[in-house]
Amino acid sequence: MNHKKYVKMYHPVPLTNREWPTKEITHAPIWCSVDLRDGNQALYSPMTIDEKLEFFAFLVKLGFKEIEVGFPAASATEYDFIRRLIDEDRIPDDVTIQVLTQAREHIIKKTVESLKGVKHAIIHLYNSTSTLQRKVVFKKSKEEIKQLAVDGAKLIRDLVDPNFTPEQIRYEYSPESFTCTEPEYAAEVTNAVLDVFEPSPDRKVIVNLPSTIEVATANVYADQIEYMCKHLNNRENLIISVHAHNDRGTGVASSELALLAGADRVEGTLFGNGERTGNTDLITVALNMFAQGIDPQLDISNIDEAISVFEKYNKLPIHPRHPYAGEMAYVAFSGSHQDAIKKSFDVFEQEGSKTWANPYLTIDPKDIGRKYEPILINSQSGKGGVSYIMEAKYGYTLPKSMLVEFSDLINKLSDEKQTVLTNHEIHVAFKDTYVNVPEPIKMKFYRIQHTEDNATIISATIEYNGSVKTITGEGNGPIDALCNALRNLLSAEFEISAYHEHALTRSSTSKAAAYISITDCCGKVYWGSGVDVNISTASLYALISAVNRKLMTD
Ligand code: KIV
Ligand code: ZN
Fold this sequence. Notes:
The protein has 17 helices and 14 strands. It has helices spanning about 35-40, 50-60, 75-85, 105-115, 130-140, 140-160, 185-195, 220-230, 250-260, 280-290, 305-315, 335-350, 385-395, 400-415, 425-435, 480-490, 535-554, and strands at about 30-35, 65-70, 95-100, 120-130, 170-175, 205-210, 240-245, 265-270, 440-450, 455-465, 465-475, 495-505, 510-520, 525-530. Helix 4 links the parallel strand 3 and strand 4. The chain binds 3-methyl-2-oxobutanoic acid (KIV) and zinc ion. 3-methyl-2-oxobutanoic acid binds next to strand 5 and strand 6. Zinc ion binds next to loops.
């Protein structure tokens, strides 16, 4: 690979005493969704007007107060959509729509015309200022490009000011491809535009500084933003907005560092749809804030609804590992992760804690309508994950050494299958291996008697080796008695080495689970489990299951 072919596309930022590295994000910015413009223009199949209307309504539901709705001069669909929003009174009073226009006369005229009767709108003027675009696209000097921006601003002002109140229409200016523009020149052009728009406390002007194409690490963008905040005139009457694309995969980081550097507003899209590798993912930025105890001022309590709206209208999938939203975002594979997650759940539940902390989950999935399940188990998963599934999903609390054995079995199964096991497969593997194992000995029924001297006699009818017979045994309880009967039947030496039982809380009928291990004369351990509505029967089944497992391996 010839790396010498590439050179840095950004210009040095003459910033001294940078302040942003010591800052923190403390509150939500003004959010502006550009899904219906930047996002929509990047789709294989752009939205129809009806789809746009539905998407717009959803953005409003999420809590967006500023929504870029299109480029009205670009097509009849864009224009008509904006007209329908206005004419059909679909824009709530506290929501401002934003329309994009280039600095060209006929485009500006059409844009202003599209807004007739609007209650609140932002006219967003842009022209590209980068070194490369000036050279290869516009073939204009710095002075000419600045003039283009100033002329565009004047035309907007002259068309808007007589016809709309300052409350109705605000202005936004973007030096497009800002990140590849010399910072001093970007400030010069923007200040010239601001001289026309005349920002005031009653009509603040939005200066949007796009990372139209990401060409540097996020700290460089932060430097560029801080530089602009310090070199734009009338800063107190400006709203500094950022609009980062994601070419280097750092759109979210760029926007976040830009907030540290003084930005007040963030433009982006749901889940980062947008040209090429997308725009800043506003859902991620918002949830990153949420995860640090900051109210994001967007309602993302039902992330699955947001995903289905996104997928329906954009016809794009969400990556399974997408931050917060991906279907695998709350799935842990590694056993140690699963174990730590479970332990943290348990500790915080016991403590009755009102705050969240989990070693591997940045937020409580429930807060966005998700669950920490199903955990998928693969060959990397340890007993923590298996234990969690068996307990949380199916109500079995396996004794520790049985769990170790069963987890090994699950790892082997997953290895053979070369993929994850579902909860159901794990449950089935447990039942097939340990529970009420029906062969070679099958107990049909039993009777218990107690003698005067406190001994227990069992008489059990079993099917074994194709014949039905009754075996009897005496002991200090039913399990001991059956154990003796089985030893006689099989002429085998084994001892009961562990016994556990509990109610099966997750079961729809109230059943009990028992776990028994037997140890043979060579010290080999065999686990078995029994499940029944009657706890004594469950214990006897557990013993027979353990013995059957021994017989099957003998
Ligand atoms: O990415 C960009 O520069 C844009 C502008 C129109 C703001 O989308
Ligand atoms: Zn963009």
